[in-house]
Amino acid sequence: MLDDVTDNQREPVKVFLVDDHALFRAGVRTELDSITDEVRVVGEAGSVAEAVAGIARTKPQVVLLDVHMPDGGGAEVLRRIRPELPDVVFLALSVSDAAEDVIAVIRAGARGYVTKTISSKELVRAVVRVSDGDAVFSPRLAGFVLDAFADRPGSAPINDPELDLLTPRERDVLRLLARGYAYKEIASELFISVKTVETHVSSVLRKTQLSNRYELSRWASDRRLV
């Protein structure tokens, strides 16, 4: 009833999901819709083009944005949307916690960055906070941003010529491999086949001129990918 509405109540934050994995989008949408009335999912997209069209149509307050997609990724969505809809807030939600990915998407205009290990309740809080104007980062990721923008000695490097040889997906595979994941676990985490994981690992070994996963782990650790 109208009399029951108080000044403390607020409209749900309108959220748009951008991720190239339909299964992941469905899971996030179900979780957000089922655990809270603080947010409301108004649309979703699996590509840059779909995202640009969908965000323009639904005009959400917050976009949950994957960093790596086949046709350009989160930074491209930001580049195309922000000039037209400057009030839309972007929160990166990615499997990647690499410094260069965090820095790149923040430089493009995202208001925060959290990884896909975040709990549903924590994600809701993050969405509400960025919609209210806060910046939200996982603690370790916040350090990357502070280092990069402070430009102080010892800060995490933004560019690495050797690292730049790898594609975003190869970096994802390498990161999980260095953490001790088996090929089957990497495939499950990234929603790809075991055969595709093997292909990426072979490509990384070739590009880095290394011979086994132990050398790759050290290489990844030296570049703060782990």
UniProtKB/TrEMBL annotation:
Tagged with keyword Phosphoprotein: yes
Domain HTH luxR-type stretches: 159-224
Every Response regulatory domain range: 14-131
Superkingdom of source: Bacteria
SMART domains: HTH_LUXR, REC
Record keywords, A-Z: DNA-binding, Phosphoprotein
BP GO terms, sorted: phosphorelay signal transduction system; regulation of DNA-templated transcription
InterPro entries named in the record: CheY-like_superfamily, NreC/VraR/RcsB-like_REC, Sig_transdc_resp-reg_C-effctor, Sig_transdc_resp-reg_receiver, Tscrpt_reg_LuxR_C, WalR-like
UniProt keyword annotation of Transcription present: no
MF annotations from Gene Ontology: DNA binding
4-aspartylphosphate PTM sites in chain numbering: D66
Protein name (database record): LuxR family transcriptional regulator
Source organism: Amycolatopsis rifamycinica
